[in-house]
Specification:
It contains 15 helices and 19 strands. By secondary structure, it is an alpha+beta fold. The strands form 5 sheets. Strands 5-6-10-8-9 form a 5-stranded antiparallel beta sheet. Strands 1-2-4-3 form a 4-stranded mixed beta sheet. Helix 9 crosses helix 11. Belongs to the FAD-binding oxidoreductase/transferase type 4 family.
């Protein structure tokens, strides 16, 4: 019996999509850089259905491409163009299975939208700290598969740090139930870490046990103009020392990004009367009421201003003002789409190397393409710089994008000199899976390929990604 007929026996008609109009949204990535083909899009509603789909695909020699919210930036969730694929969307596996407030854990299916998990935690007077621009549409399975980071890694860590257990359908259809809500378990290899960050190349993550934290009761949000990137780094150390573990976010925004946001994103504004080259969006939080966290931020910023590190600063006095400041951070991301072609980099270097990396990479790309606009922003608190490049005024988008390979090499060479990585939180997908071999030792790929062969000997799980 043909594969599609066998799939129709185990799925609802609305969960097996074959018409071109129905499958099209699943066959291209969010940035429209990659387009693929598939025999069908399947949307199972349970782990058991995922298991049966994967087993049938393995028997038929058809590849599986897991997909969550399809908001990734590296093409990992887009099938290849050979058409011998099934896109397995987890969007209908969106239940919160359990919330254990006493254990500070929540067990969720992979298709849960990140914001849904955040809200469920809040309703239980708990906090799930992963936060990123796509949180209203990205799904937990994708967050796990890319080891997502976001704006709170400085305090809480990335998705690998936030996960206690996983449920995974293996490439032969068997189910590994590793949904353990334990903070200590040294009984053998910690298998969940094979699948977190693997971008669907080793199995299909169907559910996870995630860590929760005390819900923040107070926060202090500040928008700060700094004298230089070196001053920003010095200020980071001061704010961490002043707040203990209360420093949650430390985001970097250059002047060019703020100007683009003001010009292209309604609601954006300049917090200060005079322009400055570099800004920071800083947030401290506390789980205690009347914690004095705002006073701590004020005192630390005042001292830094006296010492010449800070030029201007404003601290939100209420939630409305805080939301307005954070709107600017999201507007910086959105504004790039309005100004033409862009070439994006998701670089991470040690904190101490961030200023030097930005200076050296900027000089390299400006020398290579005169007039290029460097749009470097991101998570200074954890060393993750989104070193994006915008086309020069008057240059055609296609001509600029033709320079992508050369510019990527320049930026990533600088990152390598500073002992960094070419992917901090976006993953490799099919965007960086070849280039990464220039920067990682061959023995690492040998080990990764051995793991891939051991778990997925037929090579059906998301082929062409990562490796």
């Amino acid at each position: 019996m043909p594969l599609l007929e066998r799939l129709a026996e185990i799925l609802e008609p609305s969960d097996l999509l074959t018409a071109a109009g129905d499958t099209a949204p699943y066959l291209t990535d969010w940035r429209k850089l990659y387009h693929g083909e598939a025999l069908a899009v399947v949307r199972p509603r349970s782990t058991e259905q995922v298991s049966r789909v994967v087993a049938l695909a393995a028997e038929a020699g058809v590849s599986i491409v897991p997909q969550g919210g399809n908001t990734g930036l590296a093409g990992a969730a887009t099938p290849r163009s050979n058409g011998n694929n099934l896109v397995l969307s987890l969007e209908r596996m969106n239940k919160i299975r359990a919330l254990d407030a006493a254990n500070y854990t929540i067990t969720v299916e992979a298709g849960c939208i990140l914001q849904q998990v955040q809200e469920a935690a809040t309703q239980a007077d708990r906090h799930f700290p992963l936060s990123l621009a796509a949180e209203g549409s990205c799904r937990i399975g994708g967050n796990l598969s890319t080891n997502a980071g976001g704006i709170a890694v400085l305090r809480y860590g990335n998705m690998r740090d936030l996960t206690l257990g996983l449920e995974v359908v293996l490439p032969d259809g068997r189910i590994w139930n590793g949904l353990r809500a334990l903070r200590k378990d040294s009984a053998g290899y910690d298998l969940k870490h094979l699948f977190i960050g693997a971008e669907g190349t080793l199995g299909v993550i169907t559910a996870a046990v995630l860590k929760l934290f005390p819900r923040p009761r107070e926060r202090a949000s500040a928008f700060v103009a700094v004298a230089s990137l070196d001053a920003a780094l010095a200020l980071l150390g001061r704010m961490r020392a002043a707040s203990g573990d209360g420093l949650t976010s430390f985001e970097m925004i250059p002047r060019v990004a703020l100007e683009k946001a003001i010009a292209h994103v309604p609601g954006s504004f300049d917090p200060f009367p005079d322009p400055h080259d570099a800004y920071l969006l800083i947030e401290m939080t506390s789980s205690r009421e009347n914690s004095g966290i705002t006073a701590v931020a004020e005192e630390a910023l005042a001292a830094a201003m006296e010492d010449g590190l800070v030029r201007e600063a404003t601290i939100a006095q209420n939630e409305t003002q805080a939301a307005a400041l954070w709107f600017l951070r999201e507007a910086v991301v959105e504004a790039q789409r309005a100004v033409g072609a862009s070439i994006k980099h998701d670089v991470v270097v040690p904190l101490s190397a961030v200023p030097a990396f930005i200076r050296e990479a900027t000089a390299a790309v400006e020398a290579a393409v005169p007039g290029i606009v460097v749009y470097a922003f991101g998570h200074l608190g954890d060393g993750n710089v989104h070193f994006n490049l915008l086309q020069p005024p008057g240059m055609k988008p296609e001509a600029f994008l033709a320079e992508m390979g050369r510019l990527n090499r320049l930026v990533h060479d600088v990152s390598a000199r500073h002992h960094g990585s070419i992917s901090a939180e976006h993953g490799l997908g099919q965007l960086r899976n070849k280039e990464v071999r220039l920067y990682k030792p061959a023995i690492e790929f040998e080990l990764m390929e051995r793991i891939k062969l051991a778990i997925d000997p037929k090579g059906i799980m998301n082929p062409g990604k990562v490796l």
